[in-house]
């Protein structure tokens, strides 16, 4: 379900539910929480890398779960709201969709293979992106592109994500992890205290955005959850058919 290896002073965390496209269930969220706690608490570890392996990054929340699984320290997926003292790099091969893309948005740096794609298909399921995409896409992409992704569910390529500033490097397919390790090594040779202080300073500078963003997200998620479209969207997904949406109620 989750694999961890150490390369010098770098912790590589690999999602390992490939048959489920690395969709996150409760057990995987807790495993991620434990791995990230290890990264923060073991002094010899300097940088973390999160990958889904060679074929897919993550499809987000396992739709058999009633909601995005969360932990007390990490929030959604054991990661999305976590206060970290050490950098985390996403190494993306294949698809990073929905919550999988929101996991990428929660990382500090991103290395993507040429074939990687990023998307937020929640509206196609009758739900909303509720793990940080409302405000993090607007920061890491342009606001208009962020809105397009949120409203259409369309994907963007790794090359487009690089142009927009989300991705630090695009590499040949199969090379994302190797490139992420090289990037992590560049970080790891510097002062751990200075790196931690930098992460804290950036986090504190963004505190108001995050606080307001989570409030707005909670309100939108509650509104979407009250609609019958949520159940219809998920049912249609499992039945492999087009959803039959209900008309919007009058304001």
Q: Which sequence of SSEs, written as H and E, runs from N to C? A: EEHEEEEEHEEHHEHEHHHH
Query: Largest beta sheet, briefly?
Result: 6 strands, mixed
Instruction: Return the CATH class.
Output: Alpha Beta
Strand content: 15-25%
CATH architecture label = Alpha-Beta Complex
Number of helices: 9
Describe the structure.
It is a single chain. With 251 residues, this protein is α/β, with parallel strands linked by helices. Helix content is 42%, strand content 17%. The chain has helices at residues 26-41, 99-106, 133-140, 143-152, 158-164, 176-188, 192-205, 207-225, 229-239; strands at 2-7, 10-15, 47-51, 70-71, 75-76, 88-92, 95-97, 109-113, 117-119, 155-157, 169-171. It is globular and about 60 Å long.
Note the main attributes of this structure.
2-enoyl-CoA Hydratase, Chain A, domain 1, 3-stranded mixed β-sheet, 9 helices, 11 strands, globular, alpha/beta, 251 residues, 6-stranded mixed β-sheet
Would you summarize the structure shown here?
With 251 residues, the protein is α/β, with parallel strands linked by helices. It has a single domain (1-172, 193-251), classed as 2-enoyl-CoA Hydratase, Chain A, domain 1 (Alpha-Beta Complex), CATH 3.90.226.10. Helices cover 42% and strands 17% of the residues.
């Amino acid at each position: 379900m989750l694999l961890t290896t150490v390369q010098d002073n770098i912790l590589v965390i690999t999602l390992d539910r490939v048959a489920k496209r690395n969709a996150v269930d409760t057990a995987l969220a807790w495993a991620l929480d434990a791995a990230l706690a290890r990264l923060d608490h073991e002094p010899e570890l300097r940088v973390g890398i999160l990958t889904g392996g060679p074929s897919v990054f993550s499809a987000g929340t396992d739709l058999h779960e009633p909601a995005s699984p969360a932990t007390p320290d990490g929030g959604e997926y054991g990661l999305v709201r976590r206060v970290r003292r050490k950098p985390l790099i996403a190494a993306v091969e294949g698809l990073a969709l929905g919550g999988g893309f929101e996991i990428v948005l929660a990382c500090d740096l991103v290395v993507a293979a040429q074939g990687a794609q990023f998307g937020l298909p929640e509206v196609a399921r009758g739900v909303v992106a509720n793990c940080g995409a409302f405000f993090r896409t607007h920061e890491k992409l342009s606001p208009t592109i962020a809105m397009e992704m949120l409203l259409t569910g369309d994907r963007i390529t790794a090359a487009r994500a690089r142009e927009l500033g989300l991705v630090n490097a695009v590499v040949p397919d199969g090379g994302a992890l190797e490139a992420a390790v090289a990037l992590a090594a560049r970080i790891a040779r510097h002062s751990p205290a200075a790196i931690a202080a930098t992460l804290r300073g950036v986090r504190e500078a963004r505190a108001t955005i995050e606080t307001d963003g989570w409030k707005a997200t909670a309100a939108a998620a509650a509104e979407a959850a009250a609609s019958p479209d949520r159940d219809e969207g998920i049912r249609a997904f499992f039945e492999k058919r087009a959803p039959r949406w209900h008309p919007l109620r009058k304001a």
